[in-house]
Design a protein that fits this description.
single chain; mainly alpha
Length: 115
C-alpha cells in the first residue's frame, strides 16, 4: 500500500500517520491478549509477545515503500558533489597555477643543467 499524503483538516491527531490496518491489528491484538490472559496466563503471555511482534512488523511494513529510491539518493549525492566542486573552483585554479609555476621552475633548472 502506498504511503498516503498528510491531510491536516482539523486538529492534529497523534494517530494520523498510522495505517488503518495497523490500528485494527493493534486493537485485535489487545482484545486477544486480554481474552487469552483471562483463559490462561501462559497462553496470554504467548499472545502478548507474538502478537506484539506481528503488530510492530505490520507497522514497519506499512511504510516500507515510502523511502527514497537508489536513483533519488544518487541524484542528491551528485547535486551535493557538484555544489562542492563549484565551490572549490577557485582553490583548484590556484593549485593549478602553483603546479604550473613549479613545473616551469623545474624545466628551467633542467635547461640550466643541460645547457
Amino acid at each position: 500500500m502506498a504511503h498516503r499524503p498528510h491531510r491536516r483538516t482539523g486538529s492534529t491527531r497523534i494517530l494520523d500517520d498510522v495505517d488503518k490496518r495497523v490500528l485494527i491489528g493493534a486493537v485485535a491484538w489487545v482484545a486477544l491478549t486480554v481474552a487469552a490472559f483471562s483463559a490462561d496466563p501462559i497462553l496470554g503471555s504467548a499472545v502478548l509477545l507474538f502478537g506484539g511482534v506481528l503488530v510492530v512488523v505490520g507497522h514497519l511494513a506499512s511504510t516500507w515503500g515510502a523511502g527514497t529510491t537508489f536513483e533519488e539518493r544518487e541524484m542528491a549525492r551528485a547535486r551535493r558533489r557538484k555544489q562542492k566542486y563549484e565551490a572549490n573552483a577557485g582553490n583548484r585554479a590556484k593549485d593549478r597555477e602553483r603546479w604550473e609555476a613549479s613545473k616551469a621552475r623545474k624545466a628551467a633548472r633542467e635547461a640550466r643543467k643541460s645547457g
